[in-house]
Amino acid sequence: MAKFSLADSGASGILSDMAKHDPHLDHLFHALSDPTRRMMLARLARGPAAVSELAGPTGLKLPTILRHLSVLEDSGLVTTTKDGRVRSCALVPEALQPMRDWMEEQRRVWEGRLDRLDDYVKTLMKERQNGK
């Protein structure tokens, strides 16, 4: 019977992967975990907007919107500027790059694991055919 392992032969284990942990990713994923913040980012993808414009469709009070914006700013996804009494927000698209990189790495890892699983299943099928 063929030996099978889903572990990447070049991987150094879970503990060393945790050592590579990027806390900035936690902030990015946290910022994107809320539907209101995602809606705000979708609006900002069309261009800068005043806080009042972002608050309008949500039905939320201004202090709540400001807390959401604070999370987005802390994650680096949004910058704000103040001109008189108007606070404007703008998306920082390049702030998503660490997430893209992490997701691409995960895609490569899982594609490798699935390829090895496919090879294993094919080997088992050949062994069964030859054994009959």
Named CATH architecture: Orthogonal Bundle
- Sheet with most strands: strand arrangement: 1-3-2
| N-to-C span | 15 Å
According to CATH, the homologous superfamily is Winged helix-like DNA-binding domain superfamily/Winged helix DNA-binding domain
Measured by DSSP, the beta-strand proportion falls in 5-15%
Helix content: 55-70%
**Rg for CA atoms:** 23 Å
Structural category: mainly alpha
| Number of separate structural domains | 1
CATH C-level name: Mainly Alpha
What is the number of helical segments per DSSP (H or I, 4+ residues)? 6
The count of strands amounts to 3
Largest sheet: 3 strands, antiparallel
Overall geometric form: elongated
Q: Classify the fold: give the CATH topology.
A: Arc Repressor Mutant, subunit A
Report the order of strands and helices. HHHEHHEEH
Question: What is the typical, i.e. mean, pLDDT?
Answer: 86
* Low-pLDDT residue intervals, each spanning 5 or more residues: 1-6
